[in-house]
Amino acid sequence: MILVTGATGNTGRALLGELHARGAGPLRALTRDAARSASLAAFPAGVEAVEGDFEEPESLKRALDGVRSLFLVSRLGPDAEVVAAARQAGVEHVVLVSSITAQTHPHLGPAQENLAVERLLKDSGMAWTILRPTQFASNALMWAASIRDGTPIRAPYADTGLPTIHPADIASVARVALTEPSHCGRTYALTGPQPISARGQVEAIGTALGRRTPLPFVEISRQEAYEQMAAVFGEEAADAVLDVTGGDVNDELLAVRDTVPHITGTPARPFHQWARENVASFH
Ligand SMILES: NC(=O)c1ccc[n+]([C@@H]2O[C@H](COP(=O)([O-])OP(=O)(O)OC[C@H]3O[C@@H](n4cnc5c(N)ncnc54)[C@H](OP(=O)(O)O)[C@@H]3O)[C@@H](O)[C@H]2O)c1
């Protein structure tokens, strides 16, 4: 049995689809609200939806019962208790979604949290594979309301190109790691196939929408972005996000890596593919 957490999210949904398509069952999908997931038709036929909340590790017992392999999206709750619950349930192998910032910006608070859960997992006695993806293409969904309303997208560091990754590529790597034992004990930094800036992403979405004129875009200062983000995510998280999206980037973060094609055997998906596949979100 494979349990996919974050199963209604960008990566988990794609992972369930891949595992199901390749007959890698039985499959179980964790969600906090199975009725909502069913109404969204989020899971492929035959996938068992099970409710559980990382914030209440006791609630994970049923979900973890009989599970041998676990796809674990980190930092959604008390990771120490979640890892302990997996170990107690007899899980043999965990594929963990961490972040590339664990190696590019280990001084930042969120990266330290990622490093802490990586250490917990390594010390757990279970076999592990750690995925460290860079910025997700799906972060562009934060612009969907502006694009639908026709108001300008406002973003800082407009021309900093990062090798943004399609969540389906994280899922593809996870599928391989979950089904082939040779990936145990490995840590993989994952990126997309080319750098793309915020301005370039907006252009790609405009093209996917078939717009003849560019979507309105305004570059804003770090301070303006900070004030908006700190109000929602808190000051430390806002500073960290601004550093890793342009304010304090480094060669490690900017590097395009061949890990995705190397592990999956197929080229990494470019941002414009993600934009085409998700165009409905911007209509
Ligand atoms: N975005 C980036 O650029 C980036 C970069 C590197 C790493 N990451 C990591 O990627 C992860 C996000 O992945 P994603 O984009 O695939 O997810 P997502 O689309 O943001 O969806 C979040 C998922 O987590 C589940 N979830 C939320 N709170 C939960 C809780 N308390 N208990 C159990 N499940 C919970 C949700 O399920 P239900 O609502 O159905 O319960 C949903 O499936 C984060 O851990 C983040 O640190 C993101």
Strand content: 5-15%
> How many strands in all?
9
What is the ordering of alpha helices and beta strands?
EHEHEHEHEHHEHEHEHEHHHHH
Which term fits the overall shape?
A: globular
CATH class of the domain at 2-134 and 166-192 and 255-268: Alpha Beta
What is the level-2 CATH architecture name of the domain at 2-134 and 166-192 and 255-268? Answer: 3-Layer(aba) Sandwich
- The whole-number mean of residue pLDDT values reads 96
Terminal Cα separation, in Å?
A: 38 Å
- At the fourth level of CATH, the homologous superfamily of the domain at 2-134 and 166-192 and 255-268 is NAD(P)-binding Rossmann-like Domain
Small molecules bound in the structure, each named once? NADP nicotinamide-adenine-dinucleotide phosphate
Radius of gyration, CA atoms, in whole angstroms: 19 Å
Percent helix range: 40-55%
CATH topology of the domain at 2-134 and 166-192 and 255-268: Rossmann fold
Instruction: Note the main sheet.
Output: 7 strands, parallel
List unreliable stretches of 5+ residues: none
Q: Widest sheet: strand order?
A: 3-2-1-4-5-6-8
Q: Pairing-aware structural class of the strands and helices?
A: alpha/beta
Q: How many helices in DSSP terms?
A: 14
